[in-house]
Amino acid sequence: MEYVIGVDIGTQSTKALLVDRHGTIVAQHASSYQPDTPRPLWAEQKPAVWFKAVTECIARCVEKARAEGIAPASIKAVCVSSLYGGSGIPVDRDMRPLHACLIWMDRRATEQVEWVRSHIDVERLQAITGNGVDSYYGYTKMLWLREHQPDVWAKTRYFLPPNAYVIYLLTGEVAVDHSSAGNIGGVYDVAARDWSDEALDMLGIPATMMPERLVESSEVVGGLLSQWGEQLGLEAGTPIVAGGVDAAVATFAAGATRAGQHVAMIGTSMCWGYINQSVDARHGLISMPHVFNGQQDLYVFGGAITAGASVAWFREQFCHAEIEAARDTPNGDPHVLLEQAAQQIPAGADGVLFLPYLMGERSPVWDAKASGAFIGLSLFHTRAHLYRAVLEGVSFALKHNIVAGQRGAQSLDERLIVVGGAAHSDLWMQIIADITGYPVLTIEQDVEAAMGAALLAALGAGLIDRDAAQQGWITLVERARPDAERQKLYEQRFGVYADLYPALKPLMHRLQPT
After folding, report:
1. Total structural domains in the chain?
2. 127-170: per-residue pLDDT in tens?
3. CA atoms within 13 A on the CB side of 35
4. Is residue 289 part of a domain?
């Protein structure tokens, strides 16, 4: 039997799976960490943290596999996907990192956004790239580094996405996959599937800072260097496959390979996306080449910055009693206790609404100065009301993106697939079904982007063909169907939700520190 390894570098952890050519999981490992947040609305990560996690996860998977009698020679490829790395990692001519990576969550580039809007033909930039202007995008973060870290800028040879940097260390080869390149935003020509000299010139970013080699997500970048063989337990020369942006890779893992299929990935953030062949940046969503059939298909998505992060924030700040009580339960998970209480609260949380804008917001709001809010509170409300309101607020943000996406999609399937940590919650899956109006399906296996990376590894190594890759390896199960009465209530509440941000925007901006 032949095997592959899929690795996904996430915001808070890296995960790896070792699977056979049929997708059966043989071994898996995860390594946790946290992004650095040195100032409000800043979020960055040291590249060494990611590389250490990747090597640990691969080595542990190989070690577990060897205990099952699997020889290193049977492992035919490794693929690395990663979180959206924002600016990417600036490296010098010796490929040494010059600065931490400003990740997707970072919102510091607000002045650079205003500069772009004032000095650049934004309509032309949108037409070239299929993307808009916001501090989410990597190119605005690059401009921040140019202005605030001139020494770093002067020494920068390349900006490398996290997966491309890790693959360089493993192989000595520099390449960027098309999904990661497209997600940078203002530097990639989405029609030509190449860097845009015109856009780079407008922004004043040297084209030489963009790696010359662009590759498909299933392409082999290079072979594993011999220096890593012993540490990882793999043979030198093992093919390392390019991978891509985790949201697109997770969407691929969930079986989305044709126009109209749509998937919500809800972890620390939320990314809802669909497959399309065209894009219009005026609809307010983000686009990039898909990780499968990427020369024809686009992955078009919108996202909430703090989805699962909103839930984690509420738990850590206000639910100490549940955290302590959970220590005496078999699974030790406070969310079980919180959901038991929230299930007793009616849909709509008795009038409480939550805006999940705890780090500004991405689509369709696109406002780094947006802030979170509870509204509708009274003395009647309890912690359980607020917890349910948080779950509903993130679900309303999901619907907000779906409504925006419907304006540009050729079609959308009549079912919604949800992957990520949120899929562990029966209550949340039902809330999403009731708010969006879609039956909700999840993956039977507890896997996400790492499985998509493994599938790309198998395709890149020639263990499966494109038809088999399109079929995928996972099993979908229906988790919830919308309830007509709750759906009607939520439709009314969504109208309030959508009106809240425009009404509160001036006050949110006045509250921002100067």
Report:
1. 2
2. 999 999 999 999 999 999 999 999 999 999 999 999 999 999 99
3. 23
4. no
